[in-house]
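Section handout 9: paired folding examples.
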Amino acid sequence: MLFEGKDRTELQQAMKSAGRLPPGQSLTLKWPVLHYGSVPRFDPRTWDFRVYGLVESPLKLSWEEFNVLPKVQRTSDFHCVTRWSRFDNRWDGVAFQELLRRVKPKSEAAYVLIHAEQGFTANVPLADLNREEVLLATHYDGQPLTPDHGYPLRLIVPHLYAWKSVKWVRGLEFLDHDQAGFWEQNGYHMYGDPWKEQRFSR
């Protein structure tokens, strides 16, 4: 981690001074587990991943097929709406831009509704996903994601609050309009910018 050798208070001040700690956030060295409902079971024999909606070439991949896609490694910060931030997280997975190259979004596509296990969804503008640092992660700090952190597949969108970094992703639906996901329907902000403290809709 950057600024190695400092205690937590010094690290937090260093991150704040470096412009990396959003307002209202506190640094954590742990990785808290937060989700609604139970941790879904993963069966690689039946799992699949779909990309559909306003795309020229829809995709449906098995777990084996997904793992053949080119892999990338990214390091980014992680800001939870519950006011903690974790820095310099190392992720391995498939770049979102790799999927965009394959499915070719139609010109009218402007938003993506992320579909996860157990019917959970989250909405993100396509422009916010079409960034180099955004990926569908399978590994964290060199190890497979644990089930409670989203194994086998978690979306990572570092510049938005972490509820947009959806756990247990199963599909991406490209839309021409914004459509509230699960947390957005329950009072969370439609966009979720940590630097503007867009935590809730009111």
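Moving on to protein 2 of 2.
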Amino acid sequence: MAYHVLAVLVENRAGTLSRVSGLFSRRGFNIDSLTVGQTENPDISRMTIVVTGDDAILEQIVKQLSKLIDVISIRKLETSSSIRREIMLIKIKANEKDRSAIVEIASIFRARVIDISSETITIEATGGMGKLEGLLELLRPYGILELARTGLVALERGVSILKA
């Protein structure tokens, strides 16, 4: 099954996130990633929702979201016409022997070492989901102690704008 990315503009008020996430749970849809933040207009928030499913599931999700009073507009963001990024913080077990190899791997992925101790290295990485998964795969053998991901954020390329 494919994953789909939806950009959703919503009213920036208490309870909106709860109503949107509640819709997903009531319908039995899983949210793979959900990020929310205020837009250039303080009255409007932008949600980036990543869901897995076929086109019929996506169609149902869009129809159900459209019925919510807080939802202003929705757009599916195609991979070829959107910019997608995520931030990830990874704390890795790092003894003196492994430290330089871990730093080199981070460098290859244009990630930054943001904290170092006698037993750990913490790395910050930004990029698409594939890049971050690739970095994780190379770091797993060293021992990932902690991992935090922001969830995907996305915008359409060029002059296309999701408007209220």
